[in-house]
Amino acid sequence: MARKSLRLLALAAFGLMVLAQPARAQRVDFEKETHFRCYTISNQTPAPANLVTLDDQFLPPTALSVDEPELFCPPTSKNGLEIEEPEEHLTTYNAPSPLEPDLSVSTEDQFGPRTLRVTGARELFVPTQKLVGDLGFPRRLNHYWCYEASGPKVGQTVTLDDQFGADTVRVERPHRFCNPVEKVSEAGRFRIVEREVHLTCYEIFGPQKTVAQTFGVFNQFETDVFTVTSYQLLCVPAAKLGFTPITG
Question: What is the distance between the alpha carbons of residues 89 and 129, in angstroms, rounded to a whole number?
Fold first, then answer.
């Protein structure tokens, strides 16, 4: 009980410290930072789990086993915005961890300010090179630890255009909120590159693709061949304005 009370106090103090610095939100360029559309990985080569230690702003350093890849997220243009860093891709891996208590997180992105209820960690987003053409490895891209999130829906229609085609989709409820995270694994220590840049991932709905895409990938966990077809999420750059524990 005493340990939980100390953790509550520490979370509250850190969250209030962030809230006291609203100017930090202006450091995130919502237009120039990369947007990602995330597709379900329907086929890949099974591989052993990877042991990692993750350290972000919500949880103390946490050792856990990272499992199979779930989503592949290429950079996407939203409403005609230029893709500034075409080499930046992310692959999501199952990486759950409980969060107690839930947090109320104040955020802002291109869809406006939003307060999210954030619960347990769910996935690790890992920088990934797509082995096509002359795309390099995305060395200036954060790892992200993504938490289950709920909050007001967006209810806007946007046009997304990425390497798999263009679609008009409806952006609805927030699904994940992602902190930049430091990752330590057998491959080494991977520090946070852009501490201010977070991601909010929204559910999107529209005409689904019917043609599968197959391609090679490389990241710190694996070299593999992925097949993707349908999309699930739009992850947009976000600023975290502050957070407080939800008690009672």
Answer: 6
